[in-house]
Structure formats: C-alpha cells, structure tokens
Design goal:
Pfam families: DUF5996. InterPro entries: DUF5996 (IPR046038). This protein is 31% helix and 22% strand. It is α+β, with helices and mostly antiparallel strands.
C-alpha cells in the first residue's frame, strides 16, 4: 500500500516556508560553529527525523547537546548530556524573536556560541536579530512539508544504496532549504564560478571540487514557485540539457541548469515511489553516461546467480 503524499502549495505556504527557512539557518549556524569542517559542507546539514529536523550531537565544553525541530508537536527542543533541557513552542513569531529565544536558551544551559547572524544564500538578507518581517508559522503547512520530506527521504535512501562510490548522506541543507543526496565520480572538477548570493565563493568551490551528480527536493522558490524534485551534474556535459529522461512530466530548467520534476506529478501518480525512482535513476544515468563516469566501478552490480 502506498503512503499518501500530502498536497503542497508554495503560493499558500510561502510565508511559512520563508520563516521556517530562516529558523533552520539559525540552528544550522549553531552546528557550523560547533563542528570541524567536513568536505562539501556536509557537517552543517540537518537530518530529517520522524518528528522533524535535528542537528544530531554537538560538542559543548565538557558535554554535548542537540537541537531538534519537533514539527509534529511544534516545539524546539534543546537537550544536553547533563540532563538539562530547554523547550519552547513553535508558533508565528518573528525571526528576531526566535533568534533571541534560542540564544537565551543556550545561555541558560551554559552553552557558548558565536554566530554570524547574516542569512546565507538569500538575496537582500536581514540579520536574524533585526528580522521582524518574517513571522509566519502555520502548523498544518509545516506538518505537510515534514511528511513530504520523510517520504522523499525514503525514496532517496533507496536510490543512494545503489551507488558504491563516494556519496553523501541524504541530508537537509538549511542554506538552500532542500533535501539532497550527491554522488561523485572521483574525478576533480573545474573551479566553480561561485556567485551564490551571500555565500563565500570558496565554499561553493570546495563543495564542487569534484565531479558530482546531485538530486533533491525543495518546497518551492521564486525561481521555481512550486514544490519540485531536481537533479543536476557539475560540470554539465554536452548533450545533457537536451537528453530525454523519465517520466514525461520531467523537463530541463534552462535558468537553473537542472532537470525538474514537479512534486504534483509524484503526489498525484498511482505509484509515487516508482515515478520518483524513475526520475532519479534516468537523470543520473543520462548524466553519468554523457560525462563518461566509470559506472561499473561506482555502482552496485547485480549479484550473479
């Protein structure tokens, strides 16, 4: 029996998504401040859990702590290895108020952290402590997004295990507000041109230091104003953008340089898992073949009878 994929509307939920996006940036920057650098910024990502998003374990002096978005009970939970904890309700509140609540909670728990309060990967950013513009949180919209993330993660996990080369976890990037998994050929790539809004070029260049084929899901943006799945390869080989991929609803978005599959095509299909799996596999095969990846060495081969 197929899980029912929830309806998502970027037009209706845009204000909630924008607020939640900025909240995740605040929590993500705490992780950034507490962990050593890992290739391709993998150390900063959040992970999807049965109840929301988590930082997982972070160091704090002689102890440890974790920050969790509970998007089912609509709470932010900070727990520590000393048994102390702090919780507050997630509801419509300004980003500035959320920021001050988080910092105050950490101080009460004896956790020191210093953050760059300017949001990343956004045009016209407002420092967290000054942002009283974004202040919307509709629980049902958040619950639907969380369920979509869980279901997308299931399919992406199954896709991930077919690859034996270097591959990222399935993880949530708070800068771009998307769930992603990335496969690497092992070969170095040309220097990325950078130019991502409010992101140092060296971060993008390190993230794309090697040939990579990435896929993922995001709930919508100004560029693509609807929930969608995506896939791309860097560097892009000749013939990629004009290649035929599955399913029929997928298409190449010239401005983004990515193949796009509208979320609605998955949600409304009789077999969402199958249609999304087709998209992930066909776009990867197209990318890997055109880029001449050593697929035999990088992919799990069928076991001979």
């Amino acid at each position: 029996m197929q899980n029912t994929w929830p309806a998502l509307s970027y037009a209706d939920a845009k204000a909630t998504y924008e607020t939640l996006h900025l909240w995740t940036q605040i929590i993500g920057k705490i992780k950034l401040a507490k962990l050593p650098w890992l290739n391709h910024s993998w150390h900063v990502t959040l992970l999807v859990t049965p109840t929301g998003l988590t930082t997982s374990t972070l160091p704090a002096g002689k102890g440890y702590f974790q920050v969790d978005f509970d998007l089912v009970s609509h709470q932010l939970n900070i727990t520590t290895s000393t048994g102390k904890s702090h919780t507050f309700v997630l509801e419509s509140m300004a980003v500035a108020d959320f920021y001050h609540k988080v910092i105050s909670a950490l101080q009460e728990l004896g956790i020191e952290v210093s953050l760059n309060t300017m949001p990343n990967e956004l045009e016209h950013p407002i420092p967290f402590e000054e942002d009283y513009t974004h202040a919307t949180y509709h629980p049902k919209q958040v619950e639907n997004l969380h369920k979509a993330l869980l279901l997308a993660q299931d399919v992406m996990q199954q896709f991930r295990v077919k690859f034996t080369g270097k591959c990222s976890p399935v993880h949530f990037f708070w800068g771009s507000f998307d769930l992603a998994v990335s496969r690497f050929s092992g070969k170095t790539a040309p220097a990325h041109p950078g130019g991502v809004p409010n992101l140092p070029d060296w971060v993008a260049q390190e993230a794309y230091s090697h040939e990579v084929c990435s896929c993922g899901f995001w709930p919508g943006s100004e560029a693509v104003p609807f929930a969608a799945f995506y896939t791309y390869i860097y560097p892009e080989p000749e013939g990629y953008k004009t290649a035929a991929v599955k399913p029929e609803a997928a298409y190449y978005h010239t401005a983004l340089g990515e193949f796009i599959l509208p979320y609605e095509a998955v949600q409304n299909s009789e077999n969402p898992t199958a249609i999304l799996s087709d998209f992930l596999q066909s776009t990867y095969e197209t990318a890997a073949n055109l880029a001449k990846w050593d697929r035999k060495a990088l992919e799990k081969q069928p076991v001979a009878e």
